[in-house]
Amino acid sequence: MRAILSNVQTEAKEQHYEIELIDLTQQVKNLRMFFIEEESLESFMIKHVEIDGNMLQFKLPSEQLEGSFPGQLRFDWELYLQWEENEHFETVQVENEFVANKQLGLNLFQRFETDFAGYVNIEVYHGTNADLFELKNVQHVADGILLFGTKQINEAHLQNIVMTVQDVTDQKRIIQITKDLSRYSDLFVFKIPITELIVGKQYKVLISYKFNGESLEQRVGITTQFDPDSDFVKNINGSLVCLDVAYDNMLIVSLPIPESTTQRLTKRFYSQLKRPLSLAKMILSKVKLRFIKRLFKRQRLPYQKPTIVFESFGGRQVSDSPLAVYQVFKQFYPGYNLIWSIYPELKSFCREHGMQYVVRNSVEWVSVMRRAQSWVSNARYPSWVKKSKFTFYLQTWHGTPLKKLGLDIKQVTMPGTDTLSYHRNFTREANRWDALISPNDYSTNIFRSAFGYKNQILKIGYPRNDELINTTADQIKALKEKMGIPQDKKVVLYAPTYRDNSFITTGKYTFKLPFSLQKFQEQYGKDTILILRMHYLIANQIDVSDFKDCVLNLSDYPNISELYLVSDLLITDYSSVFFDYAYLKRPILFYPYDYEMYKNELRGFYLDYEHELPGKIVHSETDMFTEMKNALTHADMTNNERFQQFYDRFCAINSGDSSRKVVDYIINTIKK
Predict the structure, then answer these.
(1) Which band of pLDDT confidence, cut at 50, 70 and 90, is reported for residue 285?
(2) What's the CATH code of the domain at 401?
(3) Within a domain: residue 96?
(4) What are phi and psi of 595, to 5 degrees?
(5) Which SUPFAM superfamilies does the protein's record reference (predicted)?
(6) Beta strands in 417-485 (DSSP E)
(7) Where does 346-470 show beta strands of DSSP type E?
(8) Which domain-ending residue is among 187, 219, 254?
(9) Are 92 and 144 within one domain?
(10) What is the pLDDT of residue 558?
């Protein structure tokens, strides 16, 4: 028998479910429904069901789907039907034909979705921004911008709704809209007249209303299901309107300044000019790569002098654990050939620091790679980079796994591959590694399962973290002096993850800090320095020129470990930097300001983000500044039980000599 969810009606605080039964027989009896929450595995049963023909119906209090697991903000429920037939019980998971978004409370939402196998997923979640009102839709019409939103929650209505459109730079300039154009009892529609907006200005939208006798005012945002790029028409008969969604889902409306005829013609000319040049460059690049691949197939003899090739992040950096291992080799075995595999832009850096190098994808590079006794890398090589039989390949990897990897990604959606091919290639590459470094048991287990890895694992901690363990107080003072940080000031490091939605077009990225530097200066500027460590693609988008006394943009600083060492507090979001920073036993604050946008991706994490982190989670600028003060007054986390449990699980193995152990291991291997 099959069971398919076909409808859900919400009345007051109760929901009425209808499930279609396929191949229902007379022998079926004792039907009951099971709800199971995916994360906490909380479950409950509904015994009281009614059958009308082939339709099963039951009622459920809405609050029951909010779960009871402390601190959990999102609940993902699977639905199962169980019945007795021929004296034994059968169970099937309920499929789905019902898709809807419901609002169960001012800050409580419900979403019915179909998973990749066709089964129903009922998501109930609390919004993380209580002061944000989410619109259902926004549309551009000839004479205005229509705002669509919910005005009925269960059986209660929003009363006296007023929309206020406010100039971002001049908050006294406002437009108030009170006329509801909607024909529906549960949905409002307000129109912002375009004639009252000024070209080149940005506007935010506020809403005020009464609900259950309480007067409320909120910022206006948009549901995460709405995509401004695909769902909003910018140009209507020459009338241009831009719709942007800020980091916290707040809506920003603007009328862009139209391009002049000269600007349009110049842009078209350069676009047409670049096409043939880009095509020629692409053809030459493909021809060269084919030649390089062919060279790797030739057998070569090893160098007489022991030669070690180091590579970090595919040749894009001279950093991380390969650099830590290189430095010990340089100290203990300076007579070896120690060669960095790099891209051309790093040549000047290597020359300045007296490092031997070879440019990646060159003929010389192929020769060095094929003849070297050992490779030390923190990332995968392409499959066409062939390893000689005498070459020992050490994979340091580049971090404690947070997001799922390799075989643990059950459905791969990357272009140019499918799940089976991705898994096969990942496993094949991983098992070319002769040894793999692990920082803890947690990582070891993941590496075995995610990489399908069967070779040697060295559970000794990451070499890059030796610096965090061995650096003295005097050395930290010297680092502060080098960076221009006063010795008597506290230091906060802000290091968020890179977000794909910062991309606009080739070579252009946009990013706005999710907190005010002005407020930081006012509250902490006298005794605290803020260090910004952003992704290199967006680092130059942040202007700190007005805050030179208290803010440093050190996004291009080459060694992030030195930034950890001078910092008293780390603030991050979904980045795995906190695993390394925890070695210092200093406080960590998590500020996932766009949690609503990224929460679905958190299902792809190995850790339970809401319950297993070594620090507090905040969702607003106000809470961030409040908790920052608390964290800076409790700088030593040694006696914090939650933090110490995390430290024992992830950091306790490394004793500060991982780099030396790696060097000894390589030496013993290549001398056999």
Answers:
(1) low
(2) 3.40.50.11820
(3) yes
(4) -55, -40
(5) UDP-Glycosyltransferase/glycogen phosphorylase (SSF53756)
(6) 435-438, 456-459
(7) 356-359, 374-377, 392-395, 435-438, 456-459
(8) 254
(9) no
(10) 78
**What do you get for the CA distance between the two ends of the chain, in Å?**
64
Round to whole Å and give the CA distance between 477 and 416.
Answer: 50
342 is written with which tokens? 């790099």
Q: How far, CA to CA in Å, does 247 sit from each of 100, 137, 147, 244, 593?
A: 25, 18, 20, 10, 7
Instruction: State which amino acid sits at residue 264.
Output: R
Please state, rounded to an integer, the average pLDDT across all residues of the chain: 87
Residues 400, 448, single domain; the answer is yes
- Which residues 6+ apart lie within 8 Å of 409 measured at CB? 419, 422, 604
Residue 216: its pLDDT value, please?
93
Q: Cβ neighbours of residue 510 under 8 Å, at least 6 residues apart? A: 502, 504, 538, 541
pLDDT at residue 351, as a whole number:
95
pLDDT-derived band at 507, boundaries 50, 70, 90: very low
Give Cα separations from 637 to 233, 295, 579, 586, 615 (angstroms): 51, 54, 14, 6, 10
Alpha carbon of residue 261 to chain centroid: 40
- List the single range of 266-280, 396-410, 622-636 with lowest mean pLDDT: 266-280
CATH number for position 211: 2.60.40
Token digits of residue 374: 């050992």
User: Are 118 and 136 members of one domain?
Assistant: no
Q: Are residues 588 and 567 in the same domain?
A: yes
Confidence of residue 155 (pLDDT cuts 50, 70, 90): confident
Residue 218 has pLDDT above 60, yes or no: yes
Residue 389 falls within a domain, yes or no? Answer: yes
* Owning domain of residue 596: 486-501+515-650
Task: Name residue 196's amino acid.
Answer: E
The owner of tokens 């998971």 is: 93
Same domain assignment for residues 51 and 98: yes
pTM of the model: 0.66
Percent pLDDT > 70 in the chain is: 89
Question: 116 with 137, same domain?
Answer: no
10 Å CB burial of residue 579 (0-12, 13-18, 19+) is buried
**Residue 312 pLDDT:** 93
| Confidence check: pLDDT of 539 > 70 | no
Whether residue 330 is found in the same domain as residue 442: yes
Q: How many domains does the chain have?
A: 4
Any idea what DSSP says for residue 556?
T
Question: What is the sign, positive or negative, of the torsion defined by CA atoms of 213, 218, 221, 225?
Answer: negative
